[in-house]
């Protein structure tokens, strides 16, 4: 299968870059969530994130597979899967690092220790601290995705 050319290729690049931008926006919206956020609003933020994933992931996968000759399809599929796994692992690591550093830095200690106590006020503070730390993690990941999206869009322009 040959890579698409001309207008179709430009549309695919634009949609993929737009998908990364929507994904970054969804992550940014999730960074605004607090413990009092109503579930329908939280679900709407997740929907924005999901639309971004739906726009970019299939097109990026097709781009990888179509850039290789048919006899290298196995290699392309393996590289695509490896890149997705590495991205997921790095995203989880960055989110976990920011969350842990922020939670512990604000006096949260460990989540288990904070929630194990019998004091309702201490548990409420622990939940609030955890949610704030999670919001910081989403903000950092949103910035990373935005930078990657901008880099990808710049790379798309260079290939014209």
UniProtKB/TrEMBL annotation:
Record bears the keyword Transmembrane: yes
Highest taxon above the source species: Bacteria
InterPro entries membership: MFS_dom (IPR020846), MFS_trans_sf (IPR036259)
Keyword Metal-binding appears in the UniProt entry: no
Transmembrane residue ranges: 12-33, 39-65, 133-156
Record keywords: Cell membrane, Membrane, Transmembrane, Transmembrane helix, Transport
Annotated localization: Cell membrane
Domain Major facilitator superfamily (MFS) profile: from-to ranges: 1-160
Membrane topology, as annotated: Multi-pass membrane protein
Main subcellular location: membrane
Protein's recorded name: Major facilitator superfamily (MFS) profile domain-containing protein
Gene source species: Actinomadura keratinilytica
Lineage: Bacteria, Bacillati, Actinomycetota, Actinomycetes, Streptosporangiales
């Amino acid at each position: 299968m040959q890579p698409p050319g001309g207008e179709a290729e430009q549309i695919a690049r634009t949609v993929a870059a737009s998908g990364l931008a929507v994904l970054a926006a969804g992550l940014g919206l999730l960074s605004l969530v607090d413990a009092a956020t109503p579930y329908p609003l939280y679900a709407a933020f997740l929907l924005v994130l999901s639309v971004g994933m739906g726009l970019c992931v299939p097109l990026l996968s097709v781009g990888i597979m179509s850039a290789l000759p048919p006899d290298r399809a196995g290699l392309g599929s393996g590289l695509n899967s490896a890149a997705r796994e590495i991205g997921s692992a790095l995203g989880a690591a960055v989110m976990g690092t920011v969350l842990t550093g922020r939670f512990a830095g604000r006096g949260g200690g460990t989540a288990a220790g904070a929630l194990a106590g019998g004091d309702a006020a201490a548990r409420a503070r622990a939940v609030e601290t955890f949610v704030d730390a999670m919001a910081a993690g989403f903000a950092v990941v949103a910035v990373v995705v935005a930078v990657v999206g901008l880099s990808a869009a710049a790379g798309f322009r260079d290939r014209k």
